Amino acid sequence: MSKVLFMNMPAHGHINPTLGLVEELVKRGEEVTYLTGEEFRDKIEKTGARFKSFKFYLDDKDEDTKTSASSVPFEVREAVKMLERVVKTCSSVFEAVFDGEEKYDYVIYDSMFIIGAEIGRALNIPTICSHTTLVNAFEAPSNPEGLENFMGEFEHVINSIREMEETYGIRFPDIISGYPVAEGMLNLVYTSRYFHPDVRGIDDSYKFIGMSLSDRKEKISFPFEKIADKKVIYISLGTIFNDGVEFYESCFEAFKDMDAKVVLSIGNRIDKSTFKSIPDNFIVLNYVPQLDVLKQTDIFITHGGPNSVNEALYNNVPMILVPQYADQFVVAQRVEELGAGINVEKDKVNAGILKQAVAKVMSDSSFKANSEKIGDSIRAAGGNVRGADEILEFVRSCLEE
Fold first, then answer.
1. Which among 121, 180, 130 has a CA at the least distance from the CA of 7?
2. HSE-CB of 110 using CA atoms within 13 angstroms
3. What is d(CA 97, CA 277) in angstroms, rounded to the nearest whole number?
4. Cα separation of 238 and 287, whole Å?
5. pLDDT score at 115
6. Which residues fall within 8 angstroms of residue 362, CB to CB, at 6 or more apart?
7. 3 state SS of 344
8. What stretches in the chain show pLDDT beneath 70?
9. Hey, what long-range contacts does 65-72 have (CB within 8 A, 24 or more apart)?
10. What digits encode the pLDDT tens for the residues 110-152?
11. Residues with Cβ within 8 Å of residue 112, at least 6 apart in sequence
12. Confidence at residue 219, expressed as pLDDT on a 0 to 100 scale
């Protein structure tokens, strides 16, 4: 039995794909400590892992910055704020990892967890990177040009970094140039090689394990009897960019007269009372059991988040994709390239375009056939069992060297 440190961003799209893998590792006798935000304690503990928290400051949008000069451009002030939050978050992680007595045999971390590899190096243990999105398929966020003219504004950030480096014996990533993306000695990617684009940097250390499915043990009431034996359109923009009332109104207009049941998940940032009129064929909820609903879905209208897309493809569901941010654009492009969906620009979405796109997918059987082809590749990739096999074999090989 090995002691495992798993570190992740406190976000559903980063946490959910890993739960099944963690359950599998625990089942095989690994002692997993999962470090993430407090709001995910219940989910993590249900896997059998030990939960440990750190403070995630990147969501603190109203934090005061030490930048006071009005002559400093807005973009620079925002970059300073963001880097302050990154450094404070990393400091909280270091305290959680290094200030205790616990020893670990290997570490697993999310690809957006930029200090994961460095923590592994400092602890002198094998490193494994968990890639919940496509690898090297999009540019990581970068800081604005011209920062070199305002380096004085970053002096307190740089001093904090140097202090952490001295305290913990680590080398901090270069966050002034941009936000780096991590990799590990072993890299697990939660999709199939067939679905993933051909990009630079993919070598034998990358293992495409498909979906890491798990029973999320969510107690969510849903009227499944209302969608039984019906054509089902499921709509969800995920957990972050889900407050677009105009988009939802366009969905009402597009599908109100369609002979189908429409399941609309609106998240927790909008109340149903916001809508003046909801068509009779709609089921509108703040949250739905997505994995179960997708099993009965004919078309999924989605933001193109990697986790949602993989879940849809695993269930052979073609998509209409309305990407909102970052990696969602390249994920949506890949779905369209492989013929499993239609990509729609978010700024051009209206009822007519949505209705036309759904009609095309419903009338052209190739969309369903292509989604099944990708789904076959994801299911064949091995999932939790393959992921755990790769990890344990890799760790064994490290011990033998």
1. 130
2. 20
3. 51
4. 10
5. 93
6. 231, 298, 299
7. coil
8. 60-70, 138-149, 177-179, 216-218, 240-242
9. 66/156, 67/153, 69/153, 72/150, 72/153
10. 998 989 999 999 999 999 999 999 998 766 555 566 666 677 7
11. 9, 14, 181, 182
12. 72
Q: φ, ψ for residue 86 (rounded to 5)?
A: -60, -45
Q: Which of 375, 8, 48 is nearest to 211 (CA)?
A: 375
What separation in angstroms does the CA of 84 have from each of 34, 87, 295? 25, 5, 43
| pLDDT of res. 67 | 47
> Residue 78's CB: how many other CB atoms inside 10 A?
14
Q: What are phi and psi of 331, to 5 degrees?
A: -65, -45
Distances (CA, A) of 82 to 115, 139, 243, 381: 16, 18, 23, 37
Bridge partners (DSSP) listed for residue 106? 4
* Contact assessment for residue 74 and residue 144, using Cβ atoms and an 8 Å cutoff: no
What pLDDT shows up at residue 241? 65
User: Under 8 Å CB-to-CB from 50, ≥6 apart: which residues?
Assistant: 31, 32, 33, 34
Q: Phi, psi at residue 47, to the nearest 5°? A: -80, -15
pTM for this entry: 0.90
